[in-house]
Design brief:
Layout lengths: L5 H10 L8 E2 L7 H4 L3 H8 L7 E4 L7 H13 L5 E7 L6 H8 L5 E9 L2 H5 L13 E8 L4 E2 L1 H5 L10 E8 L8 E2 L14 E5 L4 H10 L5 E4 L8 H4 L5 E2 L5 E4 L5 H4 L2 E2 L5 E5 L4 H10 L7 E5 L11 H8 L10 E5 L5 H11 L7 E5 L9 H4 L1 H14 L9 E5 L23 H6 L6 E5 L1
Parallel strand pairs: 1-2, 2-3, 3-4, 4-5, 5-7, 6-8, 7-9, 9-10, 10-12, 11-13, 12-14, 14-15, 15-16, 16-17, 17-18, 18-19
Helix pairs in contact: 4-5, 12-13, 13-15
């Protein structure tokens, strides 16, 4: 190791900083601290490289500690002048005054800010002295643990960020505590001076009135990605049709896995949608979009997930008809992604076999998060293996031959934008029932993501 040049050694270190590990956790001596303790040379390299210190996690347990302020000052100093990302958890106690002062000195460098808090969160934001100009802030994520029976004031959480001209991505989620009290009530955002028109990515999973949500979407003229939550005011379809349509001409990605959000789709016109994620057992979603937006000629990727608690009784062929049959009306559909429980996956695969003559799929993507893929139900289930073998055969028949790639994902990632040129199958998976069936198709590219 002593003979490895510094630039090569730094690249080796960077491979350890993946999306999960690329954070300096205040009060926790993990990466990059663990690397810096090996020897003087490594310590000098790590401490002197700003890119190792510009993603900062402040866990809840460290918020009130006296040492947090000094540790935060040191970390911010080591990050140089780089844009910074802050992950702040204040569910147990607010950030100390010293730490707030340290963070405020670098607020103009904020690129990403993620806040976890309780339903008193709007009060601790006041300690920062917001609103401050944050010219580099591009992504804001707020998760709030709320309680039933309280008024949820979205404007109170967003008002501190009214002076963020570069903000493009907004995620706000209300996580509900299981209490027997009445439901959380929303408060209108009328009068909130917020730059909705700048947003490109939006996720709003908070209590909102139907009209308020439509007004927000109407203002999001640049939106490319939208995730619908489960909180929207419960109104009937007949009442929803009384509101005007909202045109989102640039929207490419729509996530609508919660059945409660389907009512919003009655008022969305998304003619250029490319990717849709929906619940397998909620055929209402795709039918509504086709009704309002036409044939969705740009839709290339369709993702099905299980959401909610389902009993085995509903896993029937009839319950799949309304969900999967509309796929045949999508002229550009090339990729189908299935993230389903093993109980429902064979039924979905068998249904796709019957639809194969009307589809032109190039990639089929199966997902199951697992630390031990070789033991996963996806790889070991005989029913899944048999059904998937029949599906692949249907798309590789003499009259079809459209299927190019099968993508098996155990990391909850995303399939690559282009079909890989060669297969990748870890050796310990090759003898599982699923991979044995797939090995019979010589021209098929099979890629496994761990």
């Amino acid at each position: 190791m002593d003979n490895i040049p510094n630039d090569v050694l730094l690249e080796i270190f960077r491979t350890l900083f993946d999306e999960r590990n690329n954070w300096v956790s205040i009060g926790n001596k993990k990466t990059p601290w663990s690397i810096a303790t090996v020897c003087r040379r490594w310590r000098s390299l790590v401490l002197g490289t700003p890119t190792f210190w510009n993603n900062i996690n402040i866990p809840s347990a460290s918020c009130g500690m006296q040492s947090t302020g000094l540790a935060l000052e040191t970390t911010l100093s080591r990050s140089g002048t780089l844009p910074i990302s802050i992950h702040l958890s204040q569910r147990e106690c607010p950030l100390s005054t010293h730490a707030i002062a340290a963070l405020n000195t670098s607020v103009d460098r904020l690129k990403t800010l993620m806040i976890w808090g309780n339903d008193e969160g709007e009060k601790f934001l006041g300690g920062f002295g917001f609103p401050w100009p944050m010219p580099q802030l591009r992504c804001l994520k707020i998760d709030i643990l709320t309680r039933r029976g309280k008024i949820f004031d979205l404007a109170a959480y967003l008002r501190p960020f009214s002076d963020c001209p570069s903000l493009e991505e907004l995620h706000v989620t209300a996580l509900e505590l299981p209490t027997p009290e009445r439901q959380v009530l929303p408060r209108d955002v009328a009068g909130l001076d917020f730059l909705w028109g700048k947003l490109v990515v939006l996720r709003l999973d908070v209590p909102m009135y139907f009209k308020t949500f439509l007004n927000v979407l109407q203002s999001c003229v640049r939106l490319k990605s939208l995730t619908l939550g489960r909180w929207c005011q419960n109104i009937s379809v007949e009442e929803a049709y009384e509101f005007p349509l909202v045109l989102l001409p640039f929207l490419e990605t729509l996530n609508a896995i919660h059945p409660e959000s389907s009512i919003v789709l009655t008022r969305l016109h998304v003619p250029n949608l490319v990717e849709l994620t929906m619940s397998l057992w909620d055929g209402y979603t795709l039918n509504l979009l086709l009704e309002v937006s036409g044939p969705l000629r740009a839709l290339r990727t369709l993702r099905f997930v299980d959401s909610g608690d389902f009993t085995e009784e509903i896993f029937t062929e009839e319950s799949l008809i309304s969900s999967l049959d509309p796929m045949t009306s999508l002229p550009s559909l090339e990729v189908v992604c299935l993230r389903l429980r093993t109980a429902s996956l064979p039924l979905a695969l068998n249904k796709l076999v019957s639809l194969a003559p009307s589809l032109h799929l190039k990639t089929i993507w199966l997902s199951e998060w697992s630390r031990t893929p070789q033991k996963s139900e996806l790889c070991q289930s005989i029913a899944v293996a048999d059904s998937f073998q029949a599906l692949v055969a249907a798309f590789l028949g003499e009259k079809k031959r459209t299927l190019e790639c099968v993508y098996l994902d155990f990391s909850q990632g995303r399939p690559p934008p282009k079909v890989p040129e060669i297969s990748y199958i870890p050796e310990d998976l090759q003898n599982t029932p699923l991979l044995q069936r797939l090995s019979e198709f010589q021209d098929l590219i099979v890629v496994v993501s761990l």
